[in-house]
């Protein structure tokens, strides 16, 4: 389960990411609470607009951000994006403490955070594969999700307590401080131990990620499912905050609900780390489980019952998304991994600008339970799409010996992009044998003496 932690670079990354993610969840909780209670009068639609502005840039900038993640040194790129996020957190904290924050200003900061995150996310996702060998990539992705959800277990609850005790502004300043952990981890890494990768540049390469995915129907299905879940199902800030108000709870109750989601999320991430490889069937089953969990949330009679359903919700959604992420990483041509992951993150996060305003408006007009019910219906549709494709793909067969049992073929890594001439080197040319027709000899084909075995 924890085999990737035996690698020094990954171990340092894991610790730095854990601390930084705790701060990020604290800030996310505080930001949503500020919009809902300080800048508006419990307006869920305004929260939906804030989320839309923050998650729109990954979708709009996907071609550029993916190309940047593949073209430039990811370690240095992440240093730049983390530093920019640190400065934005400090600015937000100061404006809140001074009482100068307004709703339009918060909208502007949400957009700025989204632009920086659009470059940060694909670089961080692809960088995980630079830290470990190919056989450990799926495990590293799952442990990365575990780190994210361990932080989700701590961050929202800590933010809720801080908001009650000292106010929202200090939460943003604490988050700024946690970015130093990530920057320190990046400085401590051993660059010579990073997994070497090919780089291809040029504006003509921006569309390679789109073309690659278009040739992979399995990835198209994964992306469609992820988009539906991201657009309508991943609006936990809207669901949890409005349900907390419905049950008469404050900021601490809202933060605690987010931590209940994290309990299930952490369990899902750790179980994903135990699996040898990411499989399509797990994505389908996870989306179906998310539909069931959301349906249970709709009928929860009390705060405690609703919190209990969130454990199952967190487990199912992280099982789905972690497996989908690992599937994309381990079956994608490494040369295009950054661009494909940028497209994946754009689909996941970019669905929020579509779904969040709709979900927020539904919650404001008809109540949070109707909005959660909408998420359950969409999850059923996503599960149906995945199950239908799996059945029609030709990979589903009857078991050889058992009459009522079915088997599913495994997905193998697929490479459709041929090597480019820029991979050519004099060293390779000088050491690669050239076959000649019988009877012909060439002085250039004469074997050279080998040194050092």
TrEMBL record:
Topology class, membrane: Multi-pass membrane protein
PROSITE patterns according to UniProt: MFS (PS50850)
Q: Name one Pfam family in it.
A: MFS_3
Entry keyword annotation includes Transport? yes
Q: Name one GO cellular component term.
A: plasma membrane
Q: Which residue ranges does the record assign to the Major facilitator superfamily (MFS) profile domain?
A: 204-453
**Per UniProt, which keywords does this protein have?**
Cell membrane, Membrane, Transmembrane, Transmembrane helix, Transport
Cellular compartments annotated: Cell membrane
> Keyword Transport on this protein?
yes
Q: Which segments cross the bilayer?
A: 7-26, 46-69, 219-241, 253-273, 280-300, 306-328, 340-364, 370-392
The name of this protein is MFS transporter
Organismal lineage = Bacteria, Bacillati, Actinomycetota, Actinomycetes, Micrococcales
